[in-house]
Amino acid sequence: MSDKKAKPAVTSEPQKDAAENTASDSPKKTEQRDNGERRNGDRRTGITRRNDDGDTTRPSSLPKPDILHRAIAKSIDLLLFAAAVHLLGKVGAAMGLLYLAIGDGFWQGQSVGKRLIRLRVLCKEGLRPIGFKESIMRNLTVVFPAALLVLPVVGWIMFLTLGLLVVLVETYLAFHDEAGARLGDIIAQTIVEDKNLEPHADKVD
Questions:
Q1: Which DSSP string corresponds to 83-98?
Q2: What Å distances lie between residue 80 and 76, 77, 148, CA to CA?
Q3: CA-CA distance, 204 to 104, in Å (whole number)?
Q4: 154: burial class by Cβ within 10 Å (0-12, 13-18, 19+)?
Q5: Which of 20, 93, 103, 138 is the most exposed place for a label (fewest CB within 10 A)?
Q6: 46 pLDDT band (50/70/90 cuts)?
């Protein structure tokens, strides 16, 4: 009695080609879907994603933040700092300096002043609202001059030299930088979003 050899399964050429096409298309479709989700997320934030060269540009849909809006927002925060110093003395000065440092980390990238004027600070990397860490980094150039003003006599002399120099550099960059990045933004790699300049923009939460 002769043994029957099992015949190997034969896959027709059309079936083989279809299977290969399906396997090759799957990563492509996944990549296309991921790219589409990233583009949709970028449109919601209104900011262009960092490209392969590491540059982040401000698209036409997100205009450079108005320098007046930024000045008003910062003035509100400085008034809160001054009020704390006036009412609570040294304790208020410490609390006020702490607020100036971490203030932009509240309310999804908004200090009190920014929330009232409808500005928001975002990280360039990932395009997310900044936290307390980034707020401290970008506001070192604000806390330093403010701390000098609190010191008696010597502090004012230092402010009129070092402190005022920092303020002038910050102001110059905010005016002349293409993206409106001041020195603190360059240090912390952050960008300011001005919701007042976007037509039909949703109100910032």
A1: HHHHHHHHHHHHHHHH
A2: 6, 5, 17
A3: 14
A4: exposed
A5: 20
A6: very low
Q: Which two tokens stand for residue 135?
A: 């707020």
Write down the pTM of the prediction: 0.65
Gyration radius (Cα) of the chain, Å: 27
Q: Show Cβ contacts of residue 113 under 8 Å, excluding neighbours closer than 6 positions.
A: 72, 73, 74, 75, 76, 77, 80, 103, 119
CB neighbourhood size of 26 (10 A):
10
**Which DSSP state fits 129?**
B
pLDDT digits (tens, 9 = 90+) for 190-202: 999 988 876 544 4
Residue given tokens 């997320």 in the structure block: 41
DSSP assigned state of 66: P
Contact of 56 with 50, CB cutoff 8 Å: yes
Token pair, residue 169, equals 């550099």
Tell how far CA 154 is from the center of its chain.
36
Span 100-115, pLDDT tens digits: 999 999 999 999 999 9
Q: Cα(120)–Cα(134) distance, rounded to whole angstroms?
A: 13
Helix ranges, the chain (H): 13-45, 67-102, 112-117, 132-138, 140-150, 154-158, 164-176, 183-188
